[in-house]
Amino acid sequence: MPAGRSSKIQQHLNYRMRVSLQDGRQFVGSFLAFDKHMNLVLGDCEEFRKIRQKTAKTADKEEKRALGLVLLRGENLVSMTVEGPPPQNSRQRGQGGRASNMGTAKAAGRGMPPQPGAPGLQGPMHGVGGPSPGMMAPNRFGPPGYGGPPRMPMGMGPPGMRPRY
Known about the structure:
The protein is built from two helices and five strands, in the order αβββββα. By secondary structure, it is mostly beta strands. It has a five-stranded antiparallel beta sheet, with no helix packed on it. The longest helix has 8 residues, at 3-10. The chain starts with a helix and ends in a 29-residue tail after the last helix. The model is unreliable at 90-97 (pLDDT under 50).
């Protein structure tokens, strides 16, 4: 996908959008996400569809249905139009009018070095959750109190072998 097309659609994230599908339905909701296939995620979404009347004399009736969070397959999209700007409510704004990081995803775990002060990513605290370092040190013949492997008397080999002289 060319960078220009992706950046143009990214400008409309969080906007209130109207999306038309091939079957004639229209969805209005907050544009939250998209991918390379133009699959869309709309939040606080409502569906509008026209119902044809059996008699040609009366006008078509439009039915509205509240859906919530919706994933639309890109293969079925026909058009997208802006219904309104992104909402400017108190939840999206931090103190003093600057944007807050609430709800922002941050990478953690594999591929990212732990950030200093990031709790839960450095393992257990010292002295908690494991054996002492002395228990983890390798011994020559097994755990403490174990005398080692059994020994054969001098001159005797394992069973089935001839003695050496």
